[in-house]
Amino acid sequence: MKFERSTCHPCHYHILIFIIFQLLRGNESQAFPGYSINVSSHVTVQRGLCVYIPCSFTVPTTETLTGNAVGIWYKWRNTPVASNNRRFSSNGRFFLIGDVQRGDCSLYIENPLYEDQGSYYFRVEDNIRFNYQKIMPFIEVTGLTDKPDISPMRSWLDGEEVTLSCTSPGTCRGITPKIIWKGNTKDLEGENYVINHTNGTKTHFSNITFTANKAQNNSILSCTVQLEGILTTKQEITIGIGYPPGPPEIHCSIISENSDERSNKDCAMDANNTIHSLEGSRLSLSCSADSIPESSLVWKYFNETKAHKLIFDKLSLANDGLYTCQATNIHGTSNTSVTIKIRYPPRPPKVKCFIIIKHSNNNKECAMDANNTIYIPEGSGLSLSCSADSVPESSMVWKSSNETKTLSTTDKLILHNLSLTNEGLYTCHATNLHGTSNISVAFKITYGPKIANGTISSCWKVQNQLVCNCLFESFPCSDLQWKINGVPVNISNHRNNNVSIFTETSNSVTNSTLTLKVNMEESQHIQCVASNQHGELVQVLLIEIASSMFPAASIYIGCFVILLIVIGALILLVVYKKRQNIQQKESSRQTHVSVTDPIYGNAEMFSNGSTEVGQIPQKDQPPPQEMLSEVNDDDDVQYMSVDFSKLKPKVATEEQETEYAAIKQTN
Questions:
Q1: Per-residue pLDDT tens over the stretch 21-39
Q2: Domains of the chain by start residue, with CATH
């Protein structure tokens, strides 16, 4: 390489002589009028290429060039290099291509050597002979620097058919270059073409065709042109294969508490592109897409558009939904959607209540008050349904009030024929892998008035007063009405000269006492009536008092004793038989007799229907009127009678007398 560069420059003294010679010839045109030449004074040509040097000359008007005119180009020191006459030698690289007769001295140089560098002048020979040395073009020979031209220079779309052309530098007449393609393509065999121009020059180029593939993006493609000998020149380009964005890839990570990205953990997506994340977590969501040129990335959700990275400081149900990453470049658009599904422990359960209606599929919905208490008629069936909002879905369990007994392992609890023993708390537990929640409901059984278990309503006499006690239980509390001889007495605590009433209620049991001044010569008819929306209970206390019985009680007794003694054994036998009959009758009526009392109580219990006797319930407040269900029970009526006419006379003592009355319950 050093040797070539040393030979491409003329010796310094040659240049100096050329400059002095040009200065000495400065007045040539004045010395030889009519002779002139028009040509470039300095021409550069590259090794292996060619150059066309336009040139024209004139002769005096008195002279006319003929068809035999000869033009010769000489290298300085009178060495001919090109001529239109074969008499003159040519170096095979310089060619006189102009029409000398027309004053055209154009010179064509092809594939020059470094030794061809120097000054040249033109000479014409005809009927005249003249050297044109006013302008002596200096031919400079340089190394090959021009490169092939690859076109078109642009990017292509993945899958697009591409045709590239490589054009050899120069348009030389006698040089046929060899064009070679190299690169990351399957087909590198180009097709060579030649374009012939009218001036005799030629353009050589080669085409290759291939299908663009994104794997070729940023790969190098070269075109090498091999000229005469070992001269080569090469052009390289970087192939740009563009393609639209593919489906964006979603990146999800759970942000650590210390906000150190290195501590973040990737969160997983299922096959449906769903991210399950716990409520309250911190989440980072980003996306990327493979494309050329690079795509712009945005997130679209809930009619909003935001940058390609989303940060959720505290996930809540408001963040639950579909998020779409959209990637866009000049070649197209693509998107990928992901669903964020918030997981959370069960919310406080909700309970629905239905009263089961026998022989019907349409159960009646029942209500609960603010304290989650359900009021249900005795004997009814009940269906409870429990639900809790949670993700994932919760499992449901019903337990009794003491939490020791599991009543149901589903969301439903069904109870039939409810009674007072079913009262209490029932708890629904909702559980998933994130937590537990529960709700408790209370049952309160409603029922009509009935005789309280282990109690008896009765009347008894204290001196000239009749005292009656009425006992019953019900929920809600019943209205109480006392009736004397069919006339109602105010239910409220009442006192006057003849009647006093005192009523109290405790734990659903009502105890009312009626005190009445009586005239022994009159009969009294006492009723205790209790009622609520579930039924009515009537207890009838019938007191029959003979008008002459109490004033002559001792006389009747003495008479009976005397008659018994006089009549003798016969009367004793008759009395004995009567007593047997009375005892049999009393035994059939289940009579409780005290032989020490002056008055014998006879009681028979009758009922127009079955009477349930249960434990006394705990004290509670009645429910609102609108929340109680109706129960169609027959009215219960209890009757009591005391018959003084069948009493056996007996001498009364001066002690305080107490009369007892037993309840008689009849249909």
A1: 444 444 454 568 999 999 9
A2: 2-142 (2.60.40.10), 149-242 (2.60.40.10), 249-343 (2.60.40.10), 350-446 (2.60.40.10), 451-661 (2.60.40.10)
